[in-house]
Automatic annotation (TrEMBL):
<dbReference type="GO" id="GO:0015288">
    <property type="term" value="F:porin activity"/>
</dbReference>
<dbReference type="Pfam" id="PF02321">
    <property type="entry name" value="OEP"/>
</dbReference>
<keyword id="KW-0813">Transport</keyword>
<comment type="similarity">
    <text>Belongs to the outer membrane factor (OMF) (TC 1.B.17) family.</text>
</comment>
<protein>
    <submittedName>
        <fullName>Outer membrane protein TolC</fullName>
    </submittedName>
</protein>
<keyword id="KW-0998">Cell outer membrane</keyword>
<dbReference type="GO" id="GO:0015562">
    <property type="term" value="F:efflux transmembrane transporter activity"/>
</dbReference>
<keyword id="KW-1134">Transmembrane beta strand</keyword>
<keyword id="KW-0472">Membrane</keyword>
<dbReference type="GO" id="GO:0009279">
    <property type="term" value="C:cell outer membrane"/>
</dbReference>
<dbReference type="InterPro" id="IPR051906">
    <property type="entry name" value="TolC-like"/>
</dbReference>
<dbReference type="InterPro" id="IPR003423">
    <property type="entry name" value="OMP_efflux"/>
</dbReference>
<dbReference type="GO" id="GO:1990281">
    <property type="term" value="C:efflux pump complex"/>
</dbReference>
<keyword id="KW-0812">Transmembrane</keyword>
Length: 437
């Protein structure tokens, strides 16, 4: 009778879990990453910044194209004028009107500036690469955050399952204690202890449910969607145990976005020096214009004049002395290049250090996963044996409770070991720039 009731309770809980699972979306990691790439605000901002740098790569922005301007000038005046000529005659006119009108189109083109414009264009291209590297860094960082948040939910979901199991066991214990009390084989104290332990397990389950719900809100925020969106994650958490430190280092040297950014910064500094050195060469500009002018005067030798035609010419300038500003600028630019080299070395050292420490943590976590897996299996066997002994009354409630808690703690530790191992894997792949997008 007791076994039948226990089986019925377990079946009802199982059906309830199935109904709840079917009512919620199963969110895979691939879907979560896809949603983040489409919606995440930081990724969108970084994408826009990269587009700005791409738009800036233009020959006109580098100063290679001419500038063409249209202009018009119209001056009018009304004056009281008087004139005395050389021969002694004079003219006088009140409210004399004067008008000067000119308009035209002009072209100005720098055809040589010491090759500064070519260095500028190359610098704009490197800035575009910098924007792409920053975008990649943002994407990898956010995808890494999504991975971590997702697998955090996986391990919390596993812990919820473990706590659900202990609730079922505690309910079984409560039923057994109540039946034994009814037939006079146990005291009221055993029933009360069973009730206290059941309440304790229910409190732990409620706390875990709260943490699980808040973690889902955090993942929804990373996905930039309605934070109240309901979903479930998969129950499988597998750690890649085949990572190699030497391979990760090789990949990091080629793909790590932060290191790539430092290398690009050095190239930008070198191109800046080229632009500064262009100041030692002459600058040559050509110009041309087609203008029309008209002048009208109520008083004077000419009452009206007109002119139209083409103007053209060139200008050249060479800096002969500027207070040694050219030398100072070149010296500062060379120091900037040296700083860029130091930053690359610093980033390489930091990257190597992070990979080494993260890989050591990764190896430790792999060993812990194996150990905690064995502990869980042992704890489960121990619980099964203890449960049978408790049913026939050969062990105390304290021994049963100890075995029960050992099993739950073993499952939680195993789940947490898998999660920590996954975090180590994610960190290593993020550093190597190989995290799956």
């Amino acid at each position: 009778m007791i076994n039948t009731r226990i089986q019925l309770q377990s079946f009802i809980i199982f059906l309830f879990c199935i109904v709840q699972t079917n009512a919620q979306e199963i969110l895979t990691l691939e879907s979560a990453v896809k949603i983040a790439l489409e919606n995440n605000y930081e990724i969108k901002i970084a994408t826009n910044n990269s587009s700005i740098q791409e738009t800036n790569v233009a020959v006109g922005n580098a100063g290679m194209l001419p500038t063409v301007t249209a202009n018009i000038l119209d001056n009018n005046s009304i004056q009281n004028s008087s004139q005395v000529r050389q021969d002694g005659t004079s003219n006088k006119l009140n409210n004399a009107k004067n008008n000067n009108l000119s308009y035209g189109v002009g072209l100005d083109w720098t055809i040589f500036d010491g090759l500064r414009m070519f260095a500028k264009l190359d610098q704009l291209k490197e800035l575009q690469k910098m924007g792409e590297a920053q975008l990649k860094l943002t994407i990898i960082s956010r995808v890494s955050d999504v991975n971590a948040a997702y697998y955090d939910l996986v391990q919390q979901q596993q812990q919820l399952a473990a706590l659900d199991t202990t609730i079922v066991i505690s309910n079984q214990r409560m039923t057994l204690a109540q039946n034994r009390f009814t037939i006079g084989k146990a005291s009221k104290l055993e029933v009360l202890n069973a009730q206290v332990d059941l309440n304790t397990d229910q409190v732990a389950l409620l706390r875990q449910k709260e943490l699980y719900a808040n973690s889902k809100i955090l993942l929804n925020q990373l996905l930039a969607r309605d934070v109240t969106t309901e979903f479930r994650v998969i129950d499988i958490l597998v750690v890649d145990s085949l990572l190699s430190l030497s391979e990760l280092r090789t990949l990091a040297e080629k793909q790590n976005p932060q290191l790539q950014s430092q290398i690009i910064s050095k190239k930008i500094a070198e191109l800046e020096l080229k632009q500064i050195k262009a100041g030692r060469y002459p600058t040559i500009r050509v110009n041309t214009a087609y203008n029309f002018s008209e002048s009208k005067s109520s008083l004077g030798f000419l009452s009206q004049s007109q002119a139209r035609g083409l103007n053209y010419g060139f200008s050249a300038s060479l800096n002969l002395f500027d207070g040694f500003a050219q030398n100072r600028s070149e010296k500062i630019a060379k120091i900037q290049i040296e700083n860029s080299k130091l930053s690359i070395d610093q980033q390489n050292l930091a990257l190597t250090s992070q990979l080494s420490t993260s890989f050591q943590t990764y190896l430790t976590n792999l060993e812990l996963i194996i150990l905690e897996d064995k502990n869980e299996q042992i704890a489960k066997q121990n619980l099964n044996i203890t449960l049978e002994k408790f049913r026939i009354g050969t062990i105390t409630t304290l021994e049963f409770r100890t075995a029960q808690l050992n099993y739950v703690n073993a499952k939680v530790r195993f789940s947490n070991a898998q999660f920590q191992g996954k975090l180590s894997e994610i960190a290593l792949k993020e550093l190597a720039g190989t995290i799956e997008l």
